[in-house]
Design a protein that fits this description.
Layout: H1 3-10, H2 14-21, H3 24-49, H4 53-70, H5 72-83, H6 87-112, H7 123-141, H8 145-166, H9 170-186
Helix pairs in contact: 1-2, 2-3, 3-5, 3-6, 4-8, 5-6, 6-7, 7-8
């Protein structure tokens, strides 16, 4: 994408792109960060209200639909593709994604509090995995929507399993903790 194309789309002089941002890459990274912060602000209340992993998945599915319709998925895909070979795009794109990681980490900490999974989960790593999976599913959806729905269904099944474990009585939870502790000590 050229400065001329961007300026024409914005209805401004091409020189303004360079005056305000320096380079087209700097403009794109600023747009990515601003767009991400805006979308995160839009979804923050919903994420704060999530009460279970299944609800988190449902919000994620709704987020997926809206963001795809707004074109944000395509924008992110292009930035991620460009970041693979351009260091100037890599760090700002990662920083924008980190905004989502931080939000999801907060939700996961809250949802897993008191769960047997909280004792073994690397919540920051899990938040990154959730965000990476979401981005991957977003991109995959563009080529195979049925497979994306199947993957989302599998995630829902995993959330059901976690809910079942969380609903176990105190004796079963102690037994589970003991098994988890033994398994994690072997690693």
């Amino acid at each position: 994408m050229s400065a001329r194309t961007i300026a024409a789309a914005a209805g401004v002089n091409q020189a303004l792109v360079f005056y305000h941002f320096g380079t087209v890459d700097d403009l794109l990274t600023a747009a990515c960060r601003a767009s991400t912060a805006d979308r995160l602000a839009h979804w923050s209340t919903r994420l704060t209200e999530v009460g279970s992993l299944r609800e988190l998945l449902a919000v994620g599915q709704e987020l997926h639909e809206q963001e795809r319709e707004l074109g944000n998925v395509s924008f992110l895909a292009q930035l991620l593709a460009g970041a693979q070979t351009d260091e100037r795009l890599a760090a700002p794109t990662a920083a924008a994604l980190q905004l989502w990681v931080d939000e999801i980490e907060s939700v996961l900490r809250r949802l897993l509090a008191g769960s047997p999974f909280a004792e073994i989960a690397d919540v920051p790593g899990l938040a990154r995995a959730v965000c990476a999976a979401f981005v991957g599913l977003e991109l995959y959806d563009g080529v195979d929507r049925a497979a994306t729905r199947q993957a989302m269904s599998a995630l829902d099944q995993l959330a059901v399993l976690i809910e079942i474990v969380d609903d176990l009585g105190p004796i079963a939870r102690r037994a589970l903790r003991s098994r988890v502790n033994r398994a994690t000590r072997r690693d």
